[in-house]
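Weekly structure sync, notes
Attendees: PL (lead), two postdocs, one rotation student
Agenda item 3: pending single-chain targets
PL asked that the sequence for the first pending target be pasted directly into the notes so everyone works from the same version. It is reproduced below exactly as submitted, 384 residues in total.
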Amino acid sequence: MSEQQDIQLRNARLLHALGVTALVLLLLLAFVLLLDFLGRIHTVTSILIGAVFFSYLVAPAIRFAHQRLPMWAAILVVYACIAVALFVVLWIAVPLIVSELRQFASDSPSLATRIKDDLSINGPLAAHLPSSVKAYLLTLPDQISAAVATNGLSISSSAVSILLSTASGLVLFVLVPIVTAYAVMDAQWLKGAAIGFIPVAKRPKFEEFVHAVNSVLAGYIRGQLLVAALVGTLVAALLFIFHVRYALAIGVFAGLFELVPYAGAIAGAIPGVGVALLTNGWQNALFVAIGFVAINQLSGHIFSPLIVGDQVGLRPIFVLLALLIGGELMGLRGLLIAVPVAGVIRAAIITFVPFDSSALPVPSAAPAKPKARRLFRARRAPAD
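Predicted structure, written out during the meeting:
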């Protein structure tokens, strides 16, 4: 190769690198602008996110009913069944949860007294603390009283915003199923409209990407809801077994938090172990804490792998980073959608970006598994 050709080749590579860099920067800028735009229309964003989640839950049942009914009738039948099931669950669960919350309200003074006694200078927890820490503990009651007096007005005035948030939540509860119904009815048209913008030669690759995204979202959303229900049930059962108060309310609390990966058992352990310690003693609280550790391990190593599977395909470090970034950018909404969005980004990368998987380390040979477990593993998609 001559020197002139070598210079031209290097210039071409430099131009290519600059072009790729400029494209990446433009995509990042577009992503930031998109997040800013979505933040400005946060109500519409919440409706769209809720409609996407809800559509993946009801779409299989609607498609099954559509085999015998028109689409509009299939949607009405599925929605009616969901409404009846939700009404039955609320009819049974809400009175029990309200009863536990009333019990908690009546127990609050005694619990507060117990906490104050335990944290006092003469309490068992402060017996072995340094004198400087004890001196600080003496000032805590006055500090808490001053903070309550200072912030009491702002706390009271926030009641209006809480009522407005509740009203907007009810509006979302109504609008999300409506938007979902229109999206399901127009699903084929929406898919065709998206494919229409893709050149014919690139359409097979695009359809592969759409299939990968559909698998990620469907597997994650349905699986994570089932995992959340299992974790909430186990937490409630654990607290019932050890006679810990407010078991059902704490179980529902843990199940809701399990919608954020790895958070359910931890969120339930804080009030669960705390109530057990205050009401049943440290021995009971120790057994409850061990139970929460077991539930957390079951959720992370059995429920999530078997139920959610490898649909998202993210390593734990990337799941953690996705949660941190999602929470920083969009708060609670970001935590809920961080992992599926990261899974969609992964699907785009593995579909459109050349990658040599042979560069990854080869996993060590696992010991032989029992036959029943091998059958479960055979149903899962192969890991990356």
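Discussion points:
- Residues 186-353 form one domain.
- Confidence is low (pLDDT under 50) at residues 155-160, 369-384.
Action: rotation student to compare against the earlier draft before next sync.
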